[in-house]
Write a structure and sequence with these properties.
Shape: elongated
Structural class: mainly alpha
Number of strands: 0
Distance between the termini: 42 Å
Order of helices and strands: HHHHH
Helix content: over 70%
Radius of gyration: 18 Å
Length: 96
C-alpha cells in the first residue's frame, strides 16, 4: 500500500502534463470558439425551426472560418477535451 500511493501520484502528474495531440485546437482558441458556437446555438434556438435550419450552417461556417478551422477539427478537439473533463470544465468556466 505504501508503494501504491507514490505510483498513483506519479501517474496523476504524468496525465496532467499530457500534450495535446496534433490536430486538436489549443485551449485558448477552443474557449473562444466554444463561446461563439454556443452563441449561435442560442440564436438558432430563438428562431423558427425552418429559419434556423436554413441559416445555422452559414453561421457555423463563418465562425469556423474566423478561427481558421473547420467542423471536423472542432469535433476532434471537442471529443479530445470531453475525454479530459477537468480541462473541459475549466474551459467552460472561462467561456461563461
Amino acid at each position: 500500500m505504501k508503494r501504491l500511493i507514490p505510483v498513483l501520484i506519479l501517474l496523476f502528474f504524468l496525465s496532467c502534463s499530457e500534450k495535446t495531440p496534433e490536430g486538436v485546437l489549443p485551449k485558448d482558441k477552443m474557449i473562444s470558439l466554444l463561446a461563439d458556437v454556443h452563441l449561435i446555438d442560442g440564436y438558432s434556438m430563438a428562431m423558427p425551426f425552418d429559419s434556423a435550419f436554413a441559416q445555422s450552417p452559414a453561421l457555423y461556417h463563418s465562425v469556423f472560418k474566423k478561427f481558421g478551422t473547420d467542423s471536423a477539427r472542432f469535433r476532434k478537439s471537442f471529443e479530445y477535451y470531453a475525454m479530459h473533463p477537468v480541462q473541459l470544465d475549466s474551459m467552460y468556466k472561462a467561456v461563461g
